[in-house]
Write a structure and sequence with these properties.
486 residues; mainly alpha; 2 domains; two-stranded antiparallel ribbon; 75% helix
């Protein structure tokens, strides 16, 4: 068993152990220990990764099912390894920041199962196993929202499941048809992504295959007009669920484009640039405008996710070096900043069970640490130079400016609108006088443990904003072939 198989299998086994633990306390201990070990192990993978060679490293092949193209194949490059780090980090911090819940053993087990599914998704290099992990991650998140969410949790959970499951059906059609056309062209069955990327496909069938697969990924990002499930899912999910949903799960759709569609269909991707780049700009502007109209802090941040993922689309479909680097970095940046915001909103909700913008006022006086971290993270989210959000957004827009100045110019409006929704909300919650019935008097400031979690995220936000070069160097070999195919 290779290191990448151990990476996803360990939290899967730990999920079973947490489920069967004899008490709530021991179940939580198992989950925290397992997530900490998974994070440490994902960092250690950089050692054998750096010593390897080739586009994919730490590869592992099992020959079983090779006649039908179903052989188990895993491997990582800089893109997938960075997303593994993000997954293990946010799982650890999300669980560390979680309070008590009913049916607690199931709560901890669900998060570990979700972590295992996401890690498997980012390391497999075979469409069959990719789809298997793609479906696996739906169930834990469905239960996380439906069992441990807010008052309207069941509606949000079924809406999440309906949208994502229907998107998966289109993905399944494409994943079956693609190897079928490959077999017709070569006489060989394969689901291996690298091998499919090296084969010329029927030019008449390629746009239809591309459309089916792209639709499945677009639901998960989500791309307009397939976004309707996301605000409800974020609003009703527990804080840790929102962290992983926004921080990692939404990136699975962008990762699918980068890992499968752009390498396998370079010509179709180039032809789709105006349309998908335009949808990216629509995401940026629509998400920002909707965020300005929200009175619920969690729903506000949910709409910012739609906006920020638009920058990923804009950069990715420029198919330039700068744009692809910006899109890949923006996935990490958004995970850190939005994850921190959802954690802080969850900390507030745990204390006073309210999260409306109008429910507070003068919060900086009673919770100065919360005000500091919230302001710092919001400035990252709106793209302040020197923090991580600026780097990803600007690289994405620079890449698009090389191929379509109009789309890049419209995308710049999103950075202006971000300040228009973030700063007034912050001013009202933290600095404006508290109104009648305000929950501010019931608030207490962050504990030492909560500050430790947020210091970790703040340090990464600052590091990627001031010195992103090591991460860009890690990502570059993964993205260069996509630029050359344009």
């Amino acid at each position: 068993m290779g290191p990448l198989t151990r990476l996803w299998l360990f939290p899967a086994v730990a999920a079973l152990a947490a489920w069967l633990a004899p008490s709530r306390k021991s179940s939580r201990a198992v989950a925290l220990a397992a997530s900490a070990l998974a994070f440490g192990y994902s960092l250690w993978l950089l050692v054998p990764f750096s010593a390897g060679s080739g586009a994919l490293r730490l590869e592992e092949l099992w020959s079983a099912g090779s006649e039908l193209g179903l052989r188990y194949r895993v491997g990582v490059d800089g893109l997938s390894l960075s997303l593994c780090w993000l997954t293990t980090l946010l799982t650890l911090l999300g669980l560390a920041g979680s309070g008590s819940h009913e049916r607690e053993n199931g709560y901890w087990a669900a998060f570990l199962a979700l972590e295992a599914g996401l890690l498997g998704l980012f390391v497999v290099q075979n469409l069959f196993y990719f789809y298997l992990f793609w479906e696996i991650i739906l169930l834990p998140m469905f239960f996380i929202i439906g069992l441990w969410g807010s008052d309207n949790r069941r509606y949000a959970a079924y809406k999440f499941l309906l949208y994502t499951f229907l998107g998966s059906l289109f993905l399944l059609v494409g994943f079956i048809a693609l190897p079928t056309y490959h077999h017709a062209a070569t006489g060989k069955w394969t689901f291996d992504i690298p091998e499919l990327a090296r084969t010329a496909l029927d030019p008449k069938a390629s746009p239809w295959l591309y459309a089916a697969i792209a639709l499945g990924f677009a639901v998960k990002i989500p791309v307009l007009p397939l976004h309707n499930w996301l605000p409800d899912a974020h609003t009703e999910a527990p804080a840790a669920g929102s962290v992983l949903l926004a921080g990692v799960m939404l990136k699975a759709g962008v990762y699918g484009f980068l890992r499968i569609l752009l390498p396998v269909f370079p010509d179709v991707s180039a032809a789709a640039l105006p349309w998908l780049g335009g949808l990216g700009v629509a995401n940026i502007l629509y998400g920002a405008l909707c965020a300005m109209a929200q009175g619920d802090l969690k729903r506000l941040v949910a709409y910012t996710s739609i906006s920020h993922l638009g920058f990923c689309l804009v950069g990715m479909f420029s198919m330039t070096g700068e744009g692809l680097a910006g899109a890949s970095l923006q996935m990490l940046n958004h995970g850190l900043s939005t994850g921190a915001l959802f954690l802080m909103i969850g900390m507030v909700y745990e204390r006073v069970h309210r999260r409306g913008v109008d429910d507070f006022g003068g919060l900086a006086d009673v919770a100065p640490w919360l005000a500091f971290f919230f302001a710092f993270t919001l400035l990252s989210s709106i793209g302040l130079p020197g923090l991580n959000g600026f780097v990803g957004e600007m690289l994405s827009l620079l890449g698009m400016a090389r191929v379509c100045g109009l789309l890049a110019g419209l995308g710049v409006l999103g950075t202006i609108l971000a300040a228009c929704y973030a700063l007034p909300a912050f001013q009202k919650v933290f600095w404006a006088p508290a109104g009648a019935g305000s929950a501010t008097s019931k608030m207490t400031d962050l504990t030492l443990g909560e500050r430790s979690i947020l210091w970790t995220l703040a340090a990464l936000i600052l590091w990627l904003g001031v010195y992103p070069q090591p991460m860009l160097a890690l990502l570059e070999p993964s993205l260069t072939p996509l630029v050359l195919q344009r």
